[in-house]
Amino acid sequence: MLSRIRPVALAAALLLLVPQALLAQGLTVAVPESVGMSSERLERLTAALEEYVDDGRLAGAVAIVARRGKIAYMEAVGYRDKESGAPMATDAIFRIASQTKALASVGVMLLQEEGRLLITDPVGKYLPEFMETTVAEPNDSGGYDVVPAKRPITIRDLLTHTAGISYGNGPAADKWQEAGITGWYFADRDETVGDVMARLAELPLDGHPGEAWIYGYNTDILGAMIEKISGQTLGAFLGERLFGPLGMDDTHFFLPAGKVDRLATVYSATAGGGIERAPDPGHMVGQGAYVDGPRKGFSAGAGLVSTATDYARFLQMMLNGGELDGVRVLSRKTVESMTVGHTGDIPFRPGQSFGLGFSVVEDPAALGLPASVGEFAWGGAYHSTYWVDPAEELVVAYMTQIIPAGDIDDHGKLRALVHQAIID
């Protein structure tokens, strides 16, 4: 575990921790006080993260806090692999699972900016199998009736998770099981996501489009659509259009051989409050097939691995209104449209709506923890999380690898301790 850094040495120590490539690309380290944060108060965050490691509840984690375009805090605690004693490092690579969704959603908006689609289009315009779908409606006998969907699914429905599509755990779960479409993991599949989604289109969905917020394969369908429209794999498209321009050099669907020793190990919470190494290879929750899998399924919903620094660069681009280091990825208006609520009266979470790939805070008091109106966020199944607070000019990226995470409260502590360190 890294020793705790005293305030007077914090800036110099952080400079040593930050990969030089990151510094060269402009997301530079600042003395926290220069961006309105307290060095001393940020030490409380380090102490809290180290306590989770010392108590055996986390193997390790990386946290980045950037304010006003500068890194005020960057810390690695614990172990990348506890059994071997390999320490966690700030350039460790993590499975980011559903944090992939925001990146793929940007891919959709890139295509709209080129005039190649409108998010109000029916997805069936590009993937014809989705033009007419069915819905499983529960009936009085405890089963379900299959009825035609009331209208076609739009791209916007998929971006907002209001298309009626789950992860196969709805009324017609038996049909989804028979079709071999369950869970969110694709790295071990010897078929493309497009092939899987074509089968999904034939299954009864969980709800009618536009009527409920249902989390599921929505973004994977968008990934298949991006591949169809662009003529590229999703990995090639996002690499060329997003990862390359932003300098996200460690973000991949499948890990290059030379980076395997930087991949963090996955752990699972135990009933006794500790953690254990997740099964290897392990379906969905274990060490996975990101290294030696078939490399065919580019999952827009959950397929990427990345670093905290790469993801912070993406988030800073969004906070900047679509630009980073002189490179414009999106227009300001596109970013604005992605980071406002689109779900209206459809129930989601207290105080929040859902935008185009992100949750969006509309009533901070309803959350019960510090936040601002307009904050946008999400996270991943391996217990990583992030948020962007435009009002505070704040970016937070937190990476760890634990699934299931049990009742650990590190996300809440992270939020409280980041906000208490703001002093201007």
Keywords, please?
424 residues, alpha+beta, eight-stranded antiparallel beta sheet, globular
Low-confidence parts lasting 5 or more residues at pLDDT below 50?
A: 1-25
Main sheet attributes: strand count, strand direction, barrel closure: 8 strands, antiparallel
Mean pLDDT: 93
The string of secondary-structure elements, in order, is HHHEEEEHEEHHHEHHEEEHEEHEEHEEEH
**Form type:** globular
Per DSSP E runs of 2 or more residues, the count of β-strands stands at 17
Strand sequence of the main sheet, in spatial order? 3-2-1-17-16-15-14-13
Report the portion of residues in β strands: 15-25%
Helix content class: 25-40%
In angstroms, what separates the terminal alpha carbons?
31 Å
By DSSP (H or I, 4+ residues per run), the number of helices equals: 13
- Which value, in Å, is the CA radius of gyration? 21 Å
Structure class: alpha+beta
Describe the structure.
Strand 15 and strand 16 form a beta hairpin. Helix 4 (100-113) crosses helix 9 (234-246). This protein has 424 residues and is of the alpha+beta class. The strands form five sheets. Strands 3-2-1-17-16-15-14-13 form an eight-stranded antiparallel sheet, sandwiched between helices. The model is unreliable at 1-25 (pLDDT under 50). The chain has helices at residues 10-17, 20-24, 39-54, 100-113, 155-160, 173-178, 193-200, 218-230, 234-246, 308-319, 332-338, 364-367, 410-420; strands at residues 60-67, 70-81, 86-87, 94-95, 134-138, 144-148, 204-205, 267-269, 275-277, 305-306, 323-324, 327-328, 352-354, 359-361, 376-379, 385-389, 394-399. It is globular, with a radius of gyration of 21 Å.
